[in-house]
Amino acid sequence: MAHTRLMRELQRQGVSRREFLTFCASMATVLGLPEGSAAAIAKAVENEKRPILVWLEFQDCAGNTESFLRASHPTVADLVLDTISLNYHETLMAAAGAQAEGVLDETVKQNKGNYIALVEGSIPGDADSGYCCIGGRSALDIAREVCGNAAATIAVGTCATFGGIPAARPNPTRALSVADAVPGVRNLINMSACPANAENITALIVYYLTLKQWPPLDRYRRPLFAYGKSIHDGCERRAHFDAGQYVESWGDEAHRHGHCLYKMGCKGPATSQNCPNVGWNEHTNWPIGCGHPCIGCAEPNFWDVMTPFYQKLPDVAGVNTDRWLDTVGVGLTGAVAAGVVVHGIGEVMRRGRGRLVVEEKPAAGKGTGEQAGAKK
Amino acid sequence: MSAVPAHAGEHAMLERVYIWELPVRLAHWLLFFSIVTLAVTGFYIGHPFISAPGPASAHFIMGRMRSVHLYASIVFTLAALVRVYWAFAGNRYARWSQLLPVSLERWRSFRQAFLFYTFLSRQSVDYLGHNALAGLTYAGIFAVYFVMMATGFALYTVYAPPGSPMQWFGWLIPLFHGLPIARLIHHIGMWVILVFAVAHVYFPVLYALVERNGVFDSIFSGYKFKEPGSRE
Ligand code: HEM
Ligand code: SF4
Ligand code: SF4
User: Fold this and answer.
1) Which of A183, A239, B17, B210 is the most buried (most CB within 10 A)?
2) Residue among A221, A242, A259, A371 with most chain B CBs within 10 A, to mutate
3) What ipTM does this complex have?
């Protein structure tokens, strides 16, 4: 099969067939497919017929594009993705202006219902707001047309998935996720995280190429292979969490020993993704691996609810609840206990002044249903 | 309803009345023990104050706290559900209408109870079941229990594997805007319950003394003593 376009390209880049198969095996691992699927993956990936992709960028930082391409030397994954027919990608394509928009237009018209749209960035909810227009068209218009006619739409990154940072309070542009901006969009797959992990995007595409279908999804339409488990449950520091060994301040003894970052505000217990297993930057490391708490980047409303990043609980009206909640709780409980003692003393004094009056029962007949039937 | 005449030799004016049926008493004590357990373990989960020395493999402090918390939460949830069920299936004293000031008469006694507790009136409200103010407080604390369950089960979805029935509670997460806020509400709820608990232990003791109607013993035995003038 060394004559396929992909294999020729790989050979030109100095990637051996052995390395290619290793890649296919690693994809099988990320996807949680059984042993032996690597061959099926290799066959599917080598196939000459590839789906057409268009990549839309709206209110974003191009971080997902960056993650997708990776700054390092080209790898097999890059090549697989390169050989996909990526017809339109503003940041990457050589064409610009009307020429570029023409390509998008043509792709959508000629491949109606047959291409895959990838969306990066959130979409201003108001088409007339003037925020985020491309070639004079609002992001909302473009998204509805392009995603509305796609066979499937992949929302890449937390902004496209949940609105992300542009949608954080006070959300000046009324930013929406793809799901909200294009209601009823067909086959939407959400790849949240800031940015989405290139490993997972590649695995998603490989899954589709191999099985000709989309993977099982969680409640936020995220593939279970990447979002089926919490950071906390996969974390290498979990033994320290369970033992009760926590970092109390940056650089302390526990931090140097790699203890759990729970008390430093780690949002691993609220976040689902496969970072502990897949890692970042070609498995180099991942945030908790280098001593920084997870900031919960893959979850809805991430910027609003996961901040402050270095506190366990969110602030209320600027008050640090991590520090004050238990103090206030102990104080209130104590105050009520004290109040009860005072009340008790008052009660004893009142009893000292004679038997208390027990209210007489109102005359029968006047009573409501509740009293009717009372046994005398 | 199920009034039992006092045994010969007892105070002639008092009737011994069966108020709290077994499910009510059972639910009450299961709630009591589970809440004590949940509060102790929950406090540790929220604020791990013990630090384990040495290798991680030698300890399981948080792990144990969490598992005990989760088992206790099952007891808590079942007990609360039994009590709510009994508010519809039980005797008149256990009914939901005892908890809410649904009648004009109960509204009036609500005011009276408030005045009595605040020393503004010497006239107590003697009810065989709950008086209106106490009833509303219990309705409120049950609302807090359900908030604890909603936030607790929402937090638990993170640990439930895909396909687990516990994932069903995921629909609750958007109600709180996100899990850290559910955690915060869960934590605040603990203090609300503890503040309630202090007052809740005090008032029955007080009225057992003031009214000598057995309200404090009633949650063990089920029986209270009915004075001629007391309301159902
Ligand atoms: C009276 C009832 C309860 C009390 C007082 C209580 C208390 C607490 C507290 C204080 C925390 C720590 C919150 C923080 O991180 O700041 C907690 C955590 C938690 N509670 Fe409860 N709780 C109660 C009932 C429940 C119930 C019914 C469930 C149902 C499953 C539940 C499940 C959880 C879970 C899953 C956690 C998080 C544990 C973790 O992330 O490791 N709790 N609870
Ligand atoms: S570092 Fe974070 S994710 Fe890891 S065990 Fe601790 S709390 Fe969980
Ligand atoms: S560890 Fe947490 S914050 Fe970091 S990339 Fe993974 S999900 Fe996002």
Assistant:
1) B17
2) A242
3) 0.87
